[in-house]
Amino acid sequence: MVNNIFNTILSPVITEKATKISEYNQYVFKVSINSNKTSIKEAIEKLFKVKVKSINTTKVKGKTKTFKGTKGKRSDYKKAIVTLNKGQNLDYSGGVS
Question: Among candidates 78, 34, 75, which has minimal Cα distance to 60?
């Protein structure tokens, strides 16, 4: 079960926009491309011990880039924007000094 949580939630997305929406109790995570909203909700609730209000997901297409004259493509990934219930908060920067 624990392995399933870490296979679903890959990493938090820490960007300027993601930090700004955290004021509205929303947090952004990079998730497995095969995960669905129910598995994401269960993983967030078990991992951070919070109650999730809603989840919005989006698939992000990988960019086509040129590396030393050779065309390449970055991997596609899925993003989840997690909205928590009122009064709940999430600290995914715990342990960082």
Answer: 78
| Residue 19, C-beta contacts closer than 8 angstroms, at least 6 positions apart | none
Distance separating alpha carbons of residues 88 and 97, to the nearest angstrom? 23
Where residue 84 falls among pLDDT bands split at 50, 70, 90? very high
64 lies in some domain: yes
Whether 49 maps to a domain, the answer reads yes
Task: Give the residue-averaged pLDDT of 13-37.
Answer: 93
**Taking the alpha carbons of 14, 15, 17, 23 in that order, is the dihedral positive or negative?**
positive
In a domain, 75, yes or no: yes
Q: What is the CATH number of the domain that holds 13?
A: 3.30.70.330
At 63, is the secondary structure helix, strand, or coil? coil
